[in-house]
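Two records follow; treat each independently.
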Amino acid sequence: MNRNLVRGLFLVAISLAFGLQALRYPIGDFSRAGPGLFPAMVSGILLVIGAATVVRSFFVERVRLSINFRNIAIILGSLCGLALLSTYVNMIAGIVFMVFFSALASSSGYSWVRNVKVSLGLVAMALALQKLLGLNLPLY
């Protein structure tokens, strides 16, 4: 199976799933945006990227699709750990766990320095979302 084709079809499917749900909300216009405008725009951009990926897959060399169940399990475990730690400890601990645990799936090797940098960036982003946008994130 062609990995590029599957990737493009997956992007198209995700964009349609979110885009069709976004149309259930009022869209509004750019001067007075409704709650459905942003998800509709993002899913539209993702649809264009997915369609371009599908078309491109017919013109480039085929890449064999391989599924690595170990990496899938690591990523799912890191997301579950993020959810559990965010619920029972705090979100900063969950973010750090997610970054360090998901890095085990990397093919470029494990680098704790890179993991610290990524963790600091994600924690800074979460703090900015909490302080600047007023999102209710359990960071502490």
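The next record belongs to a different protein.
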Amino acid sequence: MDRDAPRPRVVVGVDGSPSSYAALRWAVRQACLVGGTVDAVAAWELPGMFGWSGPAVDADVDEEAARQGLAQELTEVLGTEPAAPVRPLVVRGNPVDVLLRASEGAEALVVGGRGRGGFARALLGSVSHHVALHANCPVVIVRPQAA
């Protein structure tokens, strides 16, 4: 076996929702099964980015806040020593576009069934629906455990 061969990579979208936390746990279990790694991806956009008004925010500060938030979420969900290597990635852009780019060449793309926005009764969120239709790798949509 070639020791320099790349390890399988599982990409997971993390947005702070219970559904994305369930997806993160699923992605780590899958990475353990295939001897791979996890790329935990959080996408962020500036408020008003697509509107007519210019945002009155500092993009560097917002990105740093997103990085800190993702690091905290990973620790809260997985603990300080996850079962598989997890690489946090914070990328500015539309979540669908960011996840599709991040998942190129991945073993799988894992997302939660419902994110932080939208209608709570909807079966799938818009991000999970779009990546399921357009990803070039298998997509796993995870729903959180019922309380």
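Discussion point: The radius of gyration is 16 Å. How would you locate this feature using only the token line?
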